[in-house]
Write a structure and sequence with these properties.
single chain, rod-shaped
């Protein structure tokens, strides 16, 4: 028995239509609260899953960007090494006369 059922209503002995109506309203309110709590948990789970998916997509994007950066850096290093080699060859040619 809950605290709502133990107390008389409007100074009566607690019986009658008014008591039943109020108890039904209380039960309906509890049901709405339970549904809202469940719905809130479901929405929170959906939000967590959406965030998890977004994090995974961001990780994939970041990994691709890092791959492209490594590729660009390697290309720059190769081009720089080739340019240095070209300058050195020109300098040797100039020094040889």
């Amino acid at each position: 028995m809950n605290s709502f059922e133990a107390q008389p209503i409007n100074g009566t002995n607690g019986s009658g239509d008014e008591r039943e109506r109020l108890l039904a309203e209380i039960a309906a309110a509890k049901d709405r609260l339970d549904r809202a709590h469940h719905d809130g948990e479901a929405r929170a789970a959906e939000a967590r899953e959406a965030l998890r998916s977004e994090v995974m997509a961001t990780r994939d994007t970041l990994a691709e960007m890092e791959r492209q950066l490594r590729q660009a850096m390697a290309m720059i290093q190769d081009e720089t090494a080739a340019e240095v080699e070209r300058i050195l060859a020109e300098a040797r040619k100039f020094a040889a006369g």
